[in-house]
Design goal:
The complex is a heterodimer of chains A (about 220) and B (about 240). Chain A is mainly alpha-helical and about 220 residues long. Chain A contains 10 helices and no strands. With about 240 residues, chain B is of the alpha/beta class.
Protein backbone atom coordinates (compact mmCIF):
# COMPACT_ATOMS: atom_id res chain seq x y z
CA UNK A 1 0.00 0.00 0.00
CA UNK A 2 2.78 2.43 0.99
CA UNK A 3 4.74 1.44 -2.14
CA UNK A 4 1.69 2.06 -4.32
CA UNK A 5 0.84 5.42 -2.70
CA UNK A 6 4.42 6.71 -2.96
CA UNK A 7 4.74 5.50 -6.56
CA UNK A 8 1.48 7.23 -7.54
CA UNK A 9 2.66 10.39 -5.75
CA UNK A 10 6.12 10.25 -7.37
CA UNK A 11 4.48 10.11 -10.80
CA UNK A 12 1.68 12.61 -10.27
CA UNK A 13 3.52 14.87 -7.75
CA UNK A 14 0.12 16.41 -7.02
CA UNK A 15 0.35 16.46 -3.23
CA UNK A 16 4.07 17.20 -2.91
CA UNK A 17 3.97 20.16 -5.28
CA UNK A 18 0.86 21.60 -3.61
CA UNK A 19 2.35 21.23 -0.13
CA UNK A 20 5.65 22.83 -1.11
CA UNK A 21 3.99 25.85 -2.70
CA UNK A 22 1.67 26.13 0.29
CA UNK A 23 4.57 25.98 2.75
CA UNK A 24 6.50 28.56 0.76
CA UNK A 25 3.52 30.93 0.77
CA UNK A 26 3.10 30.41 4.50
CA UNK A 27 6.74 31.26 5.16
CA UNK A 28 6.48 34.45 3.11
CA UNK A 29 3.50 35.51 5.23
CA UNK A 30 5.35 34.71 8.46
CA UNK A 31 8.39 36.63 7.24
CA UNK A 32 6.32 39.72 6.47
CA UNK A 33 4.37 39.51 9.72
CA UNK A 34 7.38 39.10 12.00
CA UNK A 35 9.94 41.33 10.35
CA UNK A 36 13.57 41.30 11.43
CA UNK A 37 12.98 41.32 15.23
CA UNK A 38 14.98 38.24 16.30
CA UNK A 39 13.78 38.28 19.91
CA UNK A 40 10.18 38.21 18.80
CA UNK A 41 11.03 35.48 16.30
CA UNK A 42 12.68 33.27 18.92
CA UNK A 43 9.57 33.34 21.09
CA UNK A 44 7.18 32.36 18.29
CA UNK A 45 9.42 30.06 16.22
CA UNK A 46 8.25 26.73 17.76
CA UNK A 47 4.61 27.67 17.23
CA UNK A 48 5.24 28.85 13.68
CA UNK A 49 7.21 25.74 12.81
CA UNK A 50 4.40 23.46 13.98
CA UNK A 51 1.76 25.67 12.43
CA UNK A 52 3.54 25.09 9.12
CA UNK A 53 3.76 21.35 9.74
CA UNK A 54 0.14 21.05 10.85
CA UNK A 55 -1.34 23.08 8.00
CA UNK A 56 0.67 21.30 5.32
CA UNK A 57 0.00 17.96 7.08
CA UNK A 58 -3.75 18.56 7.09
CA UNK A 59 -3.65 19.30 3.37
CA UNK A 60 -1.59 16.17 2.68
CA UNK A 61 -3.50 13.81 4.95
CA UNK A 62 -6.82 15.04 3.57
CA UNK A 63 -5.78 13.56 0.22
CA UNK A 64 -4.63 10.17 1.52
CA UNK A 65 -7.83 8.36 0.55
CA UNK A 66 -8.81 10.63 -2.33
CA UNK A 67 -6.58 8.60 -4.66
CA UNK A 68 -8.86 5.63 -3.93
CA UNK A 69 -11.98 7.65 -4.73
CA UNK A 70 -10.51 9.24 -7.84
CA UNK A 71 -9.51 5.83 -9.22
CA UNK A 72 -12.75 4.12 -8.10
CA UNK A 73 -10.70 1.77 -5.94
CA UNK A 74 -12.45 2.20 -2.58
CA UNK A 75 -14.66 -0.85 -3.15
CA UNK A 76 -11.63 -2.77 -4.34
CA UNK A 77 -9.96 -2.19 -0.97
CA UNK A 78 -13.10 -3.34 0.81
CA UNK A 79 -13.26 -6.49 -1.29
CA UNK A 80 -9.61 -7.41 -0.79
CA UNK A 81 -9.63 -10.44 1.48
CA UNK A 82 -7.50 -10.24 4.59
CA UNK A 83 -6.76 -8.01 7.53
CA UNK A 84 -7.79 -4.42 6.77
CA UNK A 85 -5.39 -3.04 9.37
CA UNK A 86 -2.63 -3.75 6.80
CA UNK A 87 -4.27 -1.10 4.61
CA UNK A 88 -4.18 1.34 7.54
CA UNK A 89 -0.51 0.64 8.22
CA UNK A 90 0.36 1.00 4.54
CA UNK A 91 -1.52 4.28 4.23
CA UNK A 92 0.10 5.50 7.43
CA UNK A 93 3.60 4.59 6.23
CA UNK A 94 3.03 6.37 2.92
CA UNK A 95 1.68 9.49 4.65
CA UNK A 96 4.52 9.47 7.14
CA UNK A 97 7.19 9.42 4.44
CA UNK A 98 5.49 12.23 2.53
CA UNK A 99 4.99 14.35 5.66
CA UNK A 100 8.59 13.88 6.79
CA UNK A 101 9.87 14.93 3.36
CA UNK A 102 7.69 18.07 3.44
CA UNK A 103 8.71 18.81 7.05
CA UNK A 104 12.40 18.48 6.20
CA UNK A 105 11.93 20.95 3.36
CA UNK A 106 9.88 23.34 5.53
CA UNK A 107 12.58 23.17 8.20
CA UNK A 108 15.27 23.95 5.64
CA UNK A 109 13.20 26.89 4.38
CA UNK A 110 12.77 28.14 7.96
CA UNK A 111 16.54 28.16 8.40
CA UNK A 112 16.87 30.00 5.11
CA UNK A 113 14.09 32.54 5.68
CA UNK A 114 14.72 33.34 9.35
CA UNK A 115 18.47 32.74 9.51
CA UNK A 116 18.14 30.37 12.46
CA UNK A 117 21.09 28.25 13.61
CA UNK A 118 19.59 24.80 14.27
CA UNK A 119 22.94 22.96 14.37
CA UNK A 120 23.22 21.93 18.06
CA UNK A 121 19.45 21.57 18.44
CA UNK A 122 19.00 19.34 15.39
CA UNK A 123 19.17 15.85 17.03
CA UNK A 124 16.65 16.80 19.72
CA UNK A 125 14.46 18.62 17.22
CA UNK A 126 14.51 15.61 14.89
CA UNK A 127 13.31 13.38 17.72
CA UNK A 128 10.47 15.75 18.62
CA UNK A 129 9.42 16.14 14.98
CA UNK A 130 9.51 12.38 14.45
CA UNK A 131 7.41 11.64 17.53
CA UNK A 132 4.95 14.45 16.75
CA UNK A 133 4.60 13.41 13.12
CA UNK A 134 3.90 9.75 13.96
CA UNK A 135 1.00 10.73 16.24
CA UNK A 136 -0.27 13.31 13.75
CA UNK A 137 -0.13 10.85 10.83
CA UNK A 138 -1.63 7.95 12.84
CA UNK A 139 -4.67 9.99 13.82
CA UNK A 140 -4.85 11.90 10.53
CA UNK A 141 -4.89 8.70 8.45
CA UNK A 142 -7.74 7.34 10.55
CA UNK A 143 -9.80 10.54 10.31
CA UNK A 144 -9.03 10.85 6.59
CA UNK A 145 -10.57 7.39 6.08
CA UNK A 146 -13.53 8.37 8.24
CA UNK A 147 -14.29 11.51 6.23
CA UNK A 148 -13.28 10.29 2.76
CA UNK A 149 -16.79 9.19 1.83
CA UNK A 150 -18.77 12.10 3.27
CA UNK A 151 -19.76 15.45 1.86
CA UNK A 152 -17.90 18.55 3.10
CA UNK A 153 -14.97 16.29 4.00
CA UNK A 154 -12.49 19.16 3.52
CA UNK A 155 -14.28 20.97 6.34
CA UNK A 156 -15.02 17.99 8.54
CA UNK A 157 -11.51 16.53 8.44
CA UNK A 158 -9.67 19.34 10.31
CA UNK A 159 -12.69 20.06 12.53
CA UNK A 160 -12.69 16.47 13.78
CA UNK A 161 -8.93 15.99 13.80
CA UNK A 162 -7.57 19.08 15.54
CA UNK A 163 -9.38 18.78 18.90
CA UNK A 164 -8.24 15.16 19.31
CA UNK A 165 -4.73 16.17 18.28
CA UNK A 166 -4.38 18.72 21.12
CA UNK A 167 -2.11 16.53 23.33
CA UNK A 168 0.34 16.08 20.44
CA UNK A 169 0.22 19.77 19.54
CA UNK A 170 0.89 20.88 23.12
CA UNK A 171 3.68 18.41 23.66
CA UNK A 172 5.43 19.07 20.35
CA UNK A 173 5.33 22.87 20.67
CA UNK A 174 6.58 22.79 24.27
CA UNK A 175 9.31 20.25 23.50
CA UNK A 176 10.35 22.16 20.35
CA UNK A 177 10.56 25.40 22.34
CA UNK A 178 12.84 23.76 24.93
CA UNK A 179 15.04 22.15 22.28
CA UNK A 180 15.45 25.44 20.39
CA UNK A 181 16.41 27.17 23.65
CA UNK A 182 19.17 24.53 23.99
CA UNK A 183 17.63 23.04 27.12
CA UNK A 184 18.56 19.38 27.76
CA UNK A 185 16.02 16.82 26.57
CA UNK A 186 15.73 15.52 30.14
CA UNK A 187 13.99 18.79 31.08
CA UNK A 188 11.17 18.04 28.64
CA UNK A 189 11.03 14.31 29.30
CA UNK A 190 7.41 14.61 30.48
CA UNK A 191 6.38 16.13 27.14
CA UNK A 192 8.26 13.44 25.24
CA UNK A 193 6.57 10.73 27.34
CA UNK A 194 3.20 12.31 26.53
CA UNK A 195 4.12 12.23 22.82
CA UNK A 196 5.14 8.56 22.96
CA UNK A 197 1.95 7.68 24.86
CA UNK A 198 -0.21 9.61 22.37
CA UNK A 199 1.54 7.88 19.44
CA UNK A 200 0.92 4.45 20.94
CA UNK A 201 -2.73 5.21 21.76
CA UNK A 202 -3.46 6.68 18.31
CA UNK A 203 -1.76 3.76 16.55
CA UNK A 204 -3.61 1.13 18.58
CA UNK A 205 -6.94 2.90 18.11
CA UNK A 206 -6.22 3.14 14.38
CA UNK A 207 -5.41 -0.55 14.06
CA UNK A 208 -8.45 -1.62 16.07
CA UNK A 209 -11.02 0.62 14.42
CA UNK A 210 -9.89 0.91 10.82
CA UNK A 211 -11.82 -2.17 9.68
CA UNK A 212 -15.11 -0.70 10.96
CA UNK A 213 -14.36 2.68 9.43
CA UNK A 214 -13.55 1.20 6.02
CA UNK A 215 -16.70 -0.95 6.05
CA UNK A 216 -18.74 2.16 6.96
CA UNK B 1 -23.43 -28.81 -16.97
CA UNK B 2 -24.67 -27.10 -13.81
CA UNK B 3 -24.03 -28.19 -10.23
CA UNK B 4 -25.08 -27.16 -6.73
CA UNK B 5 -26.01 -23.52 -6.11
CA UNK B 6 -23.04 -21.25 -5.46
CA UNK B 7 -25.21 -18.16 -4.98
CA UNK B 8 -28.41 -18.42 -2.93
CA UNK B 9 -30.57 -15.37 -2.46
CA UNK B 10 -33.69 -15.79 -0.34
CA UNK B 11 -36.34 -13.19 0.52
CA UNK B 12 -33.93 -10.32 -0.04
CA UNK B 13 -35.22 -6.88 0.89
CA UNK B 14 -33.22 -3.67 0.70
CA UNK B 15 -34.66 -0.33 1.71
CA UNK B 16 -33.05 3.07 1.13
CA UNK B 17 -34.97 5.62 3.19
CA UNK B 18 -38.59 5.48 2.01
CA UNK B 19 -37.68 3.50 -1.14
CA UNK B 20 -37.89 -0.30 -1.19
CA UNK B 21 -35.35 -1.09 -3.93
CA UNK B 22 -35.46 -4.87 -3.50
CA UNK B 23 -38.66 -6.43 -2.25
CA UNK B 24 -38.35 -10.15 -1.62
CA UNK B 25 -35.87 -11.28 -4.25
CA UNK B 26 -35.25 -15.03 -4.35
CA UNK B 27 -33.07 -16.92 -6.82
CA UNK B 28 -30.07 -19.29 -7.12
CA UNK B 29 -27.07 -19.47 -9.41
CA UNK B 30 -25.55 -22.92 -9.70
CA UNK B 31 -21.93 -23.89 -10.28
CA UNK B 32 -21.23 -23.81 -14.02
CA UNK B 33 -24.19 -21.53 -14.67
CA UNK B 34 -24.50 -17.92 -15.83
CA UNK B 35 -27.50 -15.79 -14.96
CA UNK B 36 -28.14 -12.47 -16.67
CA UNK B 37 -29.99 -9.99 -14.52
CA UNK B 38 -32.09 -7.73 -16.75
CA UNK B 39 -34.05 -4.70 -15.74
CA UNK B 40 -34.60 -1.02 -16.40
CA UNK B 41 -32.48 1.69 -14.79
CA UNK B 42 -33.14 1.84 -11.08
CA UNK B 43 -34.56 -1.67 -10.96
CA UNK B 44 -32.04 -2.64 -8.27
CA UNK B 45 -29.60 -4.72 -10.34
CA UNK B 46 -26.51 -2.96 -9.01
CA UNK B 47 -27.89 -3.01 -5.46
CA UNK B 48 -28.44 -6.75 -5.73
CA UNK B 49 -24.91 -7.29 -7.06
CA UNK B 50 -23.46 -5.14 -4.26
CA UNK B 51 -25.26 -7.17 -1.61
CA UNK B 52 -24.00 -10.45 -3.08
CA UNK B 53 -20.52 -8.86 -3.24
CA UNK B 54 -20.73 -7.99 0.51
CA UNK B 55 -20.53 -4.26 -0.24
CA UNK B 56 -24.04 -3.57 1.05
CA UNK B 57 -26.02 -5.18 3.84
CA UNK B 58 -29.51 -6.45 3.17
CA UNK B 59 -32.38 -4.97 5.16
CA UNK B 60 -33.94 -8.46 5.35
CA UNK B 61 -33.40 -11.86 3.84
CA UNK B 62 -30.32 -14.01 3.37
CA UNK B 63 -27.62 -14.18 0.73
CA UNK B 64 -25.12 -17.05 0.70
CA UNK B 65 -22.14 -17.50 -1.59
CA UNK B 66 -20.62 -20.96 -1.49
CA UNK B 67 -21.56 -22.01 2.00
CA UNK B 68 -20.93 -18.57 3.49
CA UNK B 69 -23.35 -15.92 4.62
CA UNK B 70 -22.68 -12.57 2.94
CA UNK B 71 -23.20 -10.60 6.17
CA UNK B 72 -21.71 -12.70 8.96
CA UNK B 73 -18.96 -14.32 6.84
CA UNK B 74 -18.14 -11.48 4.48
CA UNK B 75 -14.38 -12.16 4.51
CA UNK B 76 -14.91 -15.80 3.49
CA UNK B 77 -17.22 -14.68 0.68
CA UNK B 78 -14.67 -12.10 -0.53
CA UNK B 79 -12.07 -14.83 -0.86
CA UNK B 80 -14.13 -16.70 -3.47
CA UNK B 81 -15.72 -13.90 -5.49
CA UNK B 82 -14.46 -11.66 -8.26
CA UNK B 83 -16.23 -8.36 -8.88
CA UNK B 84 -16.03 -6.10 -11.91
CA UNK B 85 -18.50 -3.26 -11.47
CA UNK B 86 -18.70 0.24 -12.93
CA UNK B 87 -15.42 1.12 -11.21
CA UNK B 88 -12.70 -1.15 -12.56
CA UNK B 89 -10.44 -0.76 -9.49
CA UNK B 90 -7.22 0.13 -11.26
CA UNK B 91 -4.90 3.08 -10.65
CA UNK B 92 -4.28 5.37 -13.63
CA UNK B 93 -0.76 6.32 -12.55
CA UNK B 94 0.45 2.71 -12.25
CA UNK B 95 1.32 0.40 -15.12
CA UNK B 96 -0.78 -2.68 -15.85
CA UNK B 97 1.79 -4.93 -14.16
CA UNK B 98 2.12 -2.65 -11.13
CA UNK B 99 -1.66 -2.65 -10.72
CA UNK B 100 -1.79 -6.44 -10.71
CA UNK B 101 1.19 -6.60 -8.35
CA UNK B 102 -0.53 -4.24 -5.90
CA UNK B 103 -3.85 -6.10 -5.83
CA UNK B 104 -2.19 -9.51 -5.66
CA UNK B 105 0.02 -8.44 -2.75
CA UNK B 106 -2.91 -6.88 -0.91
CA UNK B 107 -4.89 -10.12 -1.23
CA UNK B 108 -1.90 -12.23 -0.16
CA UNK B 109 -1.64 -13.88 -3.60
CA UNK B 110 1.56 -14.70 -5.51
CA UNK B 111 2.84 -11.54 -7.20
CA UNK B 112 5.98 -12.81 -8.94
CA UNK B 113 6.81 -11.63 -12.45
CA UNK B 114 5.78 -14.89 -14.15
CA UNK B 115 2.37 -15.04 -12.47
CA UNK B 116 1.63 -11.44 -13.39
CA UNK B 117 2.89 -11.92 -16.95
CA UNK B 118 0.61 -14.93 -17.34
CA UNK B 119 -2.37 -13.02 -15.94
CA UNK B 120 -1.74 -10.20 -18.43
CA UNK B 121 -1.30 -12.67 -21.29
CA UNK B 122 -4.69 -14.22 -20.45
CA UNK B 123 -6.37 -10.88 -21.12
CA UNK B 124 -4.19 -10.09 -24.12
CA UNK B 125 -2.40 -7.19 -22.41
CA UNK B 126 1.12 -8.61 -22.15
CA UNK B 127 2.43 -6.03 -24.66
CA UNK B 128 1.10 -3.27 -22.42
CA UNK B 129 2.49 -4.59 -19.15
CA UNK B 130 4.74 -1.57 -18.60
CA UNK B 131 2.27 1.01 -19.94
CA UNK B 132 0.52 3.34 -17.52
CA UNK B 133 -3.19 2.63 -17.28
CA UNK B 134 -3.94 6.34 -17.84
CA UNK B 135 -3.36 5.72 -21.57
CA UNK B 136 -5.64 2.64 -21.74
CA UNK B 137 -8.99 2.59 -23.50
CA UNK B 138 -12.12 1.66 -21.52
CA UNK B 139 -11.99 -1.82 -23.01
CA UNK B 140 -8.35 -2.33 -22.01
CA UNK B 141 -9.12 -1.18 -18.46
CA UNK B 142 -11.98 -3.67 -18.30
CA UNK B 143 -9.65 -6.45 -19.48
CA UNK B 144 -7.12 -5.44 -16.86
CA UNK B 145 -9.90 -5.56 -14.26
CA UNK B 146 -10.70 -9.10 -15.38
CA UNK B 147 -7.03 -10.03 -15.04
CA UNK B 148 -7.13 -8.56 -11.53
CA UNK B 149 -10.12 -10.64 -10.45
CA UNK B 150 -8.67 -13.68 -12.21
CA UNK B 151 -5.59 -13.60 -9.96
CA UNK B 152 -7.66 -14.89 -7.04
CA UNK B 153 -9.16 -17.76 -9.10
CA UNK B 154 -12.70 -16.87 -7.96
CA UNK B 155 -15.51 -19.44 -7.96
CA UNK B 156 -18.12 -16.73 -8.42
CA UNK B 157 -17.99 -13.78 -10.82
CA UNK B 158 -20.21 -10.74 -10.31
CA UNK B 159 -20.19 -8.45 -13.33
CA UNK B 160 -22.03 -5.17 -13.79
CA UNK B 161 -22.50 -4.35 -17.48
CA UNK B 162 -19.49 -6.50 -18.43
CA UNK B 163 -19.69 -5.74 -22.15
CA UNK B 164 -20.06 -1.97 -21.82
CA UNK B 165 -17.35 -0.06 -23.67
CA UNK B 166 -15.98 -3.15 -25.46
CA UNK B 167 -15.57 -3.34 -29.23
CA UNK B 168 -16.70 -6.38 -31.22
CA UNK B 169 -13.34 -8.17 -30.87
CA UNK B 170 -13.17 -7.60 -27.14
CA UNK B 171 -16.77 -8.75 -26.71
CA UNK B 172 -16.00 -11.99 -28.51
CA UNK B 173 -12.92 -12.44 -26.39
CA UNK B 174 -14.89 -11.84 -23.17
CA UNK B 175 -17.59 -14.30 -24.21
CA UNK B 176 -14.90 -16.94 -24.65
CA UNK B 177 -13.44 -16.14 -21.23
CA UNK B 178 -16.81 -16.37 -19.54
CA UNK B 179 -17.59 -19.68 -21.24
CA UNK B 180 -14.25 -21.05 -19.99
CA UNK B 181 -15.05 -19.80 -16.50
CA UNK B 182 -18.43 -21.52 -16.55
CA UNK B 183 -17.09 -24.79 -17.89
CA UNK B 184 -14.56 -24.81 -15.04
CA UNK B 185 -17.49 -24.82 -12.59
CA UNK B 186 -17.71 -21.12 -11.83
CA UNK B 187 -21.00 -19.31 -11.20
CA UNK B 188 -21.61 -16.07 -13.04
CA UNK B 189 -24.11 -13.34 -12.19
CA UNK B 190 -24.12 -10.36 -14.53
CA UNK B 191 -26.31 -7.30 -14.55
CA UNK B 192 -27.19 -5.68 -17.84
CA UNK B 193 -29.93 -3.72 -19.51
CA UNK B 194 -29.06 -4.59 -23.05
CA UNK B 195 -30.33 -7.54 -25.10
CA UNK B 196 -27.36 -7.97 -27.39
CA UNK B 197 -25.12 -10.93 -27.98
CA UNK B 198 -23.77 -10.79 -24.41
CA UNK B 199 -26.90 -12.65 -23.37
CA UNK B 200 -25.52 -15.59 -25.34
CA UNK B 201 -23.29 -16.36 -22.37
CA UNK B 202 -26.27 -16.58 -20.03
CA UNK B 203 -28.00 -19.88 -19.26
CA UNK B 204 -30.87 -18.13 -17.52
CA UNK B 205 -32.47 -14.72 -17.66
CA UNK B 206 -33.87 -13.07 -14.56
CA UNK B 207 -35.87 -9.90 -15.08
CA UNK B 208 -35.86 -7.55 -12.11
CA UNK B 209 -38.64 -4.98 -11.94
CA UNK B 210 -40.43 -3.26 -9.10
CA UNK B 211 -37.93 -4.75 -6.67
CA UNK B 212 -38.84 -8.35 -7.55
CA UNK B 213 -37.73 -11.05 -9.95
CA UNK B 214 -40.71 -10.99 -12.29
CA UNK B 215 -39.38 -13.62 -14.67
CA UNK B 216 -36.73 -16.31 -14.23
CA UNK B 217 -36.43 -18.44 -17.34
CA UNK B 218 -33.88 -20.55 -19.29
CA UNK B 219 -32.42 -18.56 -22.17
CA UNK B 220 -31.54 -21.27 -24.66
CA UNK B 221 -34.93 -21.43 -26.35
CA UNK B 222 -35.33 -17.66 -26.57
CA UNK B 223 -34.31 -15.51 -29.51
CA UNK B 224 -33.54 -11.77 -29.22
CA UNK B 225 -37.12 -10.85 -30.21
CA UNK B 226 -38.58 -13.21 -27.60
CA UNK B 227 -36.37 -11.67 -24.93
CA UNK B 228 -37.35 -8.17 -25.95
CA UNK B 229 -41.04 -9.10 -25.90
CA UNK B 230 -40.80 -10.79 -22.49
CA UNK B 231 -38.81 -7.88 -21.10
CA UNK B 232 -41.31 -5.26 -22.22
CA UNK B 233 -44.29 -7.31 -21.04
CA UNK B 234 -42.88 -7.99 -17.59
CA UNK B 235 -41.29 -4.61 -16.85
CA UNK B 236 -44.41 -2.72 -17.97
CA UNK B 237 -46.58 -4.99 -15.87
CA UNK B 238 -44.39 -4.42 -12.82
CA UNK B 239 -44.31 -0.64 -13.21
Amino acid sequence: MAWKDLLVERRSKETLNALLFFSLALLFVFQFALGPDRERLASVLPGLLWLGFILSGILGLGRVFLVERENDCWEGLLLAPGDKSAIYLGKLAGSLVLMLVVEALVLALFVLFFDVDLGPALPGLTLVILLGTVGFAALGTLFAAMTAQVRARELLFPVLLLPVLVPVLLATVKATEAVLLREPLADVAHWLKLLVAADVVYLVVGLLTFDFILEG
Amino acid sequence: MVGDPLIRVAGLVRVFGPTRVLDGVTFDVAAGEAVALLGPNGAGKTTLLKIVATLLRPTRGTVRVGSHDCVSEAEAVRAIIGVVAHGVHVYDDLTARENLKFWATLAGLPADRDTLAQALAEVDLERHAETRVRTFSAGMKRRLALARVGLGRPRVLLLDEPFAGLDARARKWLEGRLETFKSAGGALLMATHSFGRELGTADRLAILAGGRIVLDTPRAALGPDDIQRLYVAHTEEAS
